From TrEMBL:
Organism whose genome encodes this protein: Actinomadura rayongensis
Recorded catalytic activity of this chain's protein: L-proline + NADP(+) = (S)-1-pyrroline-5-carboxylate + NADPH + 2 H(+); L-proline + NAD(+) = (S)-1-pyrroline-5-carboxylate + NADH + 2 H(+)
Subcellular location: Cytoplasm
Residue ranges of domain Pyrroline-5-carboxylate reductase dimerisation in the record: 157-260
Record pathway: Amino-acid biosynthesis; L-proline biosynthesis; L-proline from L-glutamate 5-semialdehyde: step 1/1
Protein name according to UniProt: Pyrroline-5-carboxylate reductase
SUPFAM superfamilies the UniProt entry points to: 6-phosphogluconate dehydrogenase C-terminal domain-like, NAD(P)-binding Rossmann-fold domains
Positions with a binding annotation for NADP(+): 5-10, 65-68
A Pfam family matched in the record: P5CR_dimer
EC number of this enzyme: 1.5.1.2
InterPro entries: 6-PGluconate_DH-like_C_sf, Acid_Pase_AS, NAD(P)-bd_dom_sf, P5C_Rdtase_cat_N, P5CR-like_CS, P5CR_dimer, Pyrroline-COOH_reductase
Keywords: Amino-acid biosynthesis, Cytoplasm, NADP, Oxidoreductase, Proline biosynthesis
Length: 264
């Protein structure tokens, strides 16, 4: 039995992915703070819902999907009900395995995951780290859960906050760039729907080439950038406005914010 505690955006996305991957609704129990939300989860997915404590007692795998700010309260609630052999998988930004281990009975295996919203389309990036009581078997179980909804990789926990900046938040940066490019289309007189179609398809094409050719992005960009042409005129402006440095600083700020979340 898998329990998804705090099935909001990410928890529900994982829940639907796990069902798409062939697990039966009877194998999953979800929890929610509001009864209307619990009813919605039952109706949409056919899963059971329960109180946190009951779900924690009956499931062999607990997925913690609440916001980092709610993690302390959730762990206080379930702490007495988590059996030592239960695998605890945390999806929260910033929250360390040690934070969770300190609040549960000794020896509970914890795996920390940073995933992202493309879980919804089976294109997530999920980055895993083992806590001090989690071994290879636990990492494998977490990988089995997450690999149907996208790519999975392992990193040392010391790099989890960097992964949060690089992949957890990353869909938002790409959406932001798409918004900005559509705004540019509007300035250039393009109808909004046409601008959106052009930008989105270009994003899909560029992402597919990055993944499927395995080429370095510099080489792919050079192939677009004709001597004396249009692309270099745009790139010069991006460089003049310090977009590369802004991106580096933005991701550093995201990493620092992840670090601060565990402190409350
Ligand atoms: N949204 C995103 O793109 C990503 C989010 N994350 C992480 O995933 C976690 C969840 O984020 P979202 O799904 O975006 O948030 P969300 O707010 O949509 O979901 C959290 C859910 O937990 C519920 N909740 C809070 N305390 C509860 C409790 N004690 N018992 C039962 N339910 C409780 C809330 O009512 C809410 O529905 C966060 O820790 C976040 O850092 C990680 C990667 C990407
Ligand atoms: O913004 C956040 O805090 C969460 C974690 C990664 C993506 N969204």
């Amino acid at each position: 039995m898998i329990a998804i505690l705090g099935a909001g955006k990410m928890g529900e996305a994982l829940l639907s992915g796990v069902l798409r991957a062939g697990r039966r609704p009877g194998e999953i129990v979800a929890t929610a703070r509001r009864p209307e939300r619990a009813a919605q989860l039952r109706e949409r997915h056919g899963v059971r819902t329960a109180e946190n404590a009951a779900a924690a007692r009956e499931a062999g795998t607990l997925v913690l999907a609440v916001k980092p700010q709610d993690m302390g309260a959730l762990l206080a609630e379930i702490g007495p009900h988590v059996a030592p052999g239960t695998l605890v998988i945390s999806m929260a930004a910033g929250i360390t395995c040690a934070f969770i281990e300190e609040r549960l009975a000794g020896g509970v295996p914890v795996v920390r995951v940073m995933s992202n919203t493309p879980v919804l389309v089976d294109e997530a990036m999920s980055v895993l780290s083992a806590g001090s009581h989690a071994g290879e078997d636990h990492l494998k179980l977490a990988e089995e859960l997450l690999s149907p909804v996208g790519k999975v990789t392992r990193i040392p926990e010391s790099l989890q906050d960097a992964a949060t900046a690089l992949s957890g938040s990353a869909p938002a940066y790409f959406y932001f760039l798409v918004e900005a490019m559509v705004d540019a289309g509007i300035l250039l007189g393009m109808p909004r729907a046409a601008a959106l179609e052009m930008v989105v398809q270009s994003a899909v094409g560029a992402a597919t080439m990055l993944r499927d050719t395995g080429e370095h992005p510099v080489l792919l960009r050079e192939a677009v950038t004709s001597p004396g042409g249009t692309t270099i005129a745009a790139i010069r402006e991006l460089e003049r406005h310090g977009v590369r440095a802004a991106v580096i600083e933005a991701l550093e700020a995201a990493r620092d914010r992840a670090r601060a979340l565990a402190a409350g």
